[in-house]
Amino acid sequence: MNALNIALNLAASGVPPLPLRAGKVPFGNCPDCTGLACGGRPNMKHAGSCTCPRPCHAWAAATTDPAVINSPAWTQAWRMAVAVAYHPGGAGLSVVDLDNAAAIAWARSAIPATRTVATTRGEHWIYQGAMRSVNAVREGVDIKSTMAYARWLGPGTGTITALPDVVRALAVKEPSPIRPAAVTVPALTGGGQCRHRSPAFLERGIAMAEQRISEARSAVHTTVYRTFLAVLSTHGRCGCLTDAHIARLFTAAQAKGESPRHCTDAWANARTTLGV
Question: Are 214 and 252 in contact (CB under 8 A)?
């Protein structure tokens, strides 16, 4: 069965598929996301969600709409696809990705049995219920659900069971220590004095940015990028931002599930967009 037919069968069962090219990497099929215009990372596993006129990239491209799957925008991708992936969270599923024998042994002793799918190096354990995706919750163990994709390797064996609290608990951990990259913001020409009324103006702006990120309920990556963009557009050219301010923003983003690298990328993209 070819990739397109697999995708249509998955979509019919309520599982949103997407095509993968060589290296298990998604196609960069979203023209509006070129140059990171949406704040995302094209062709990466955890792409940003955006409002594109065509299917977005990576996990955000997954859909159960046969009209989209059969659309001209996807025709070439399905012809070139070497594998099919799916968005577990979009189907209300979570995948515990066990990457080696030791991880499988741990799962058998620590978490409830469920449907399993053999992979190249280990197994996927599939549960009913969506949650936040987190990599490296243990050695050789990733969780793939919302804002992630997993390779489709067949229906697997065994009866799917409800997502247990013990698996959800794996994603609950303290944010990684913040080590923001050194940021040198060029001063304004003509003296470079801060144009803001008082230090309280900057403090209020940072606090509002933290709140905006913390209150995001969807499209978290896009919210983080746009918030970084707003902070830099106001404070990025006068030299008043410090590493402590940036660390506060990164901490708020990581508390919503963003990785340190994703934060650094979003910050760099915002600076590039504004030319600061």
Answer: yes
- Mean pLDDT per 10-residue section of the chain, whose length is 276 residues: 93 94 74 50 43 62 90 84 94 96 95 96 96 89 91 96 93 55 43 58 84 83 87 80 86 85 83 79
Tokens of 156: 């697997």
Q: 123 with 158: CB under 8 angstroms?
A: no
206's tokens:
């940072």
